[in-house]
Amino acid sequence: MGLQRKDLLTIAALTVDEIQLILTTAESLKEVGGRDIKKVPALRGKTVVNLFFEPSTRTRTSFELAAKRLSADVINFSPSTSSIVKGETLIDTARNIESMQADIIVLRHPSPGAAENLARSVRSSVINAGDGWHEHPTQALLDMFTIKEKKGRVEGLTVVIVGDVAHSRVARSNILALTKLGAEVRVVAPPTMLPDSIEHFGVTVFYRLDDALIGADVIIMLRLQRERLSRALLPSIREYAKLFCLTPERLNLAKPEAIVMHPGPLNRGVEISPSVADSVAAVILDQVTNGVSVRMALMYLLSGSGERSTLNE
Amino acid sequence: MVKETSQKPATSSNTILIQGGIVIDPGRVNGRADVLIQHGKIVEVGFPLKTPIRQDSSVIILEANGWIVAPGLVDLHCHLREPGFEYKETIATGAASAVAGGFTSICCMPNTQPVNDNESITKFMLAKGEEAGKARVFPIGAITRKSEGEELADIGELVDAGCVAISDDGRPVMNSLVMRRALEYAKAFGIPVVDHCEDLHLTDGGCMNEGIVSTELGMPGIPDASEEVMVARNLALADLTGVHVHLAHLSTARSVELVRHAKGQGLPVSAEVCPHHFSITEEAVRCYNSNAKMNPPLRTDEDVQALKQGLVDGTIDVIATDHAPHALQEKQLEFDTAPFGIVGFETALPLTLRLVDDGVLSLEQAIDKLTRAPAQLFHLPVGSLQPGKSADVVVFDPKEEWVVDPTQFHSKSQNTPFGGWTVKGKVKMTLVGGRVVYDAR
Fold this sequence. Notes:
The complex is a heterodimer of chains A (313) and B (441).
Chain A: H1 16-30, E1 47-52, H2 58-69, E2 73-77, H3 82-85, H4 90-99, E3 104-109, H5 114-121, E4 125-131, H6 137-151, E5 158-162, H7 169-180, E6 184-188, E7 204-206, H8 209-213, E8 218-221, H9 237-244, H10 248-251, E9 259-261, H11 274-277, H12 284-304
Parallel strand pairs in A: 1-2, 1-3, 3-4, 5-6, 5-8, 6-7, 8-9
Chain B: E1 15-25, E2 29-38, E3 41-46, E4 59-63, E5 68-71, E6 73-78, H1 91-100, E7 103-108, H2 119-132, E8 136-141, H3 155-161, E9 165-167, H4 176-186, E10 193-195, H5 200-203, E11 208-209, H6 212-217, E12 221-222, H7 224-241, E13 245-247, H8 253-264, E14 269-273, H9 275-279, H10 301-313, E15 318-319, H11 328-331, H12 345-357, H13 363-370, H14 372-377, E16 393-403, E17 422-432, E18 435-439
Parallel strand pairs in B: 1-4, 1-5, 6-7, 7-8, 8-9, 9-10, 10-13, 11-12, 13-14, 14-15
Antiparallel strand pairs in B: 1-2, 2-3, 5-16, 16-17, 17-18
Helix pairs in contact in B: 1-2, 2-3, 4-7, 7-8, 8-10
């Protein structure tokens, strides 16, 4: 059974079965990365275009590596965002790329909904690699994979998401994936960094990190964007670090076997202390490794699907 | 202030009889009546007519077939984009779009390029309107120079040149002292001051209603409070200065409540609502449809109900279109970068008639909010079929269903969230000064 859809745009649109299929496929593909010759021919002759309108190193590299391990040809295309402001629409850019017979377009874009908009306009499969504050579905899938790998399951776990949920696509996708898979989700942040009506997503809201951590199985730290200071969302980095930095003492409030995750890049000493980041509890580098497997699985499933259906149609 | 169009009547006759229709002239006539027009003016409305009419070919007879015959519609809020943004709309295309929607008088906002903050621009707009020969164009002048919110525009000059109100619509006056002075200064000229109520700091780059949907979509939100704090400010300033403040396009339940309370205290305030705000909600944004992006944003069902109630009890005086054309390429941008606004003239009447079908307003009340009430607020000598008035008339079939097809709009732009909707109420004929300027019979 393939993935019966043309695109992967959001976690919101995925069923639990689809998520499980992606994770199982990723599991069987993970072994490829351990071989001497890290390559399978699954996507030989296919073209994957990484279309990144925002600077990104790790996500783009991860997609690139995933495509290459599947033997696809990969093109990296990073138009400046200023060309959008000047009036060239995303769709124009994407149709150009489609005309070069791209099979899969991996899109990162600063506007929420950009991937959905693109998917409606091109025949190529579209994978959302992050659209504004909206979603970052592959990050959530690799996080689910990592949790499953370390904990054996997602269902029934207590997962704490710490930091700027309001402006985080990672948080949105993770909340959706975790609740679909049956985890108990807590979010903890200053109220200025929690979006309107977040409790409607089935999460419990905390304002103090110490309270949220008690009994946690998994702690997902979000990166603090320093530019938030200018929008009166925070008094200072110093105060944020005092209240929200994950220290060894705070980690002790969680369950003894708790794991710590972070989508990177880390602000050491701000949201996470170096001793936690470098501890055995941290699975941050496993997330990076798993990211390649999960993205391989996705490209494999999207290219191999027989009947195609566009998400959200 | 209204200048008769200098163009010759489209008909060779100076006498026109609109017969066989149901006349609704709010507060005056509601029932079967004929309308006699001579030399561009209303002579008599009644059945049977008392004025003797020569039974010869010199009288043009327009059959109204049982349709509604009403005063031409009056819009207090539109953007005609000229000068400066002619690729979106010109005064000519805007005025043509207006009469196709049944509007015969339209008040255009000053956010052109350059801004309408001096008599040259005002006179240019009036001349272009007259040249177009469609709807009457009534410019609204800027409150502050270049609408920058700092120094007052030459308001006296604007009024003398023909502006009927002042507003910094789209770039609302943030400085409350400047707003106070503008109100005080406007007192000398007897014109209303129109405010687009929005605290730009609270909006902070938001592009849709702040709520569950914006959270789901990952879209920066515009809170209700962004509008409401400015509504409250303006009400306080209306009280302080005693000057008529007209609040543009209310969108939230609390705004309605604030205005209701202020009117109860006798403050000199009036308010408008746009058809889109009482017809659809933030749900329309869900598939990132940039044609559902406007400012103020589409709100929730609770707000829609409150706006309707505001229309019913008179808290909201008028329905205005906020006709805001944008070119296709602008609306093809991603939702957060696309401009705010939708075209409004050609869907306003059928959307308003939905309120009649739903039993919210009577047909006469609905027409009143589009004719007599707006004309009175801005002291325009239109909006009625009273004998002696210019013969500005709309004839529409309230029952005819049609499908909104934006490619058929007379406007230069097609940005509407109502494309594909089946609506009821079709404009058959529009007359301005006794001249048929739109005919779809």
